Amino acid sequence: MPLYPLFADLAGREVLVVGGGEVALRKVEALLQAGARVRLHAHELHPVLAGWIDAGRIDRLRGDFDPAWIDAAWLMVVATDDGAFNATLAAQAGARRRFANVVDDAALSTFQVPAVIDRAPLQLAISSGGAAPMLARRLRERLEAELDPALGALAGLFARHRTAIRARLPELGHRRRWFDAVIDGPVPALLREGRDADAAQAFLAMLDDAGMVPAGGRASLVGTGPGDPGQLTLAALRAMALADVLLVDAAVAAPVLALARKDATRELAPGDPDACSGRVRDHAGAGRHVVWLRPGDGFREAPFDAIATALREAAWPCEVHAGVGDPAAWKRAGA
């Protein structure tokens, strides 16, 4: 049966947790992070849970379980190893129209806890409906590696200026185009570099322009390794997919270049490193995202490491993506 995806606001709301072991500890920790008021019933307690009770972070309900406790809760989480007791609690929750999660028992549960990717305030949740939780966790691990770590900070900028964005861009289509320009522009790159103040300034500058905003100048210096596209870093692939201009060294392998943005302008990189650097500056200064591709660990070895350092001191953002792989393979490939 398909589940209805739902993100619950539990801040200040009471949640009943039954169980005091390692699993209950993980559930309570996640609930506290969401701001819930946790009431816990358990005869034996994990030491960390006992410490949280002593510190007043959670309340302990003592004695035999009282079904009336469910009436005060918005949700109930059951984390005991007593199957019969779990079934009784699930039935009592159902009779009171309260959602209950019985850990590792999808049949008894009326809600599932998904695997979560946290880029606060942005959250992604993955659920298998309780059928294959390890598969959901594996997908979470893959997405954790692929998703830009700056997404949370970018979402925070959108959230803080939401009212101004809607006032400045009332037409939905126009607003969508503006969002695309910000997401594909220099703001995420500035956030990745830790230049939060510059990112905020660039964000507001784009908001000040009520017309369609260009993507903005920036540079990405990509080492393509031995020419195996499977060894490109995820950050390098993102840069190649967003390029306006590709400045390509003659030795870059064709399978690597095939992964780059198809409609980007492609230029053969001059043989002189300083001339290449000048070409990068020209494109970025004109508001384009230029990606310079070199084989091997192209921008962390002399003389290109010094050029990369100089480019990173420019006003527009410049990122260096290392080549990954065996240096011996780079030499065999002519890098």
From TrEMBL:
Annotated pathway = Porphyrin-containing compound metabolism; siroheme biosynthesis; sirohydrochlorin from precorrin-2: step 1/1
This entry's Enzyme Commission designation comes to 1.3.1.76
Which chain positions lie within coiled-coil regions?
none
Q: What is this protein called?
A: precorrin-2 dehydrogenase
Which controlled-vocabulary keywords does the entry list? NAD, Oxidoreductase, Porphyrin biosynthesis
Catalytic function, reaction form: precorrin-2 + NAD(+) = sirohydrochlorin + NADH + 2 H(+)
* Record's keyword annotation contains Lipoprotein: no
Q: Which domain of life is it from?
A: Bacteria
Sequence ranges assigned to domain Tetrapyrrole methylase in this UniProt record: 221-324
Annotated ranges, domain Siroheme synthase central: 121-145
Taking every annotated instance into account, which residue ranges of this chain make up the domain Sirohaem synthase dimerisation?
A: 150-207
**InterPro entries assigned:** 4pyrrol_Mease, 4pyrrol_Methylase_sf, 4pyrrole_Mease_sub1, Met8-like, NAD(P)-bd_dom_sf, Sirohaem_synt_dimer_dom_sf, Sirohaem_synthase_central, Sirohaem_synthase_dimer_dom
Note whether Coiled coil occurs among the keywords.
no
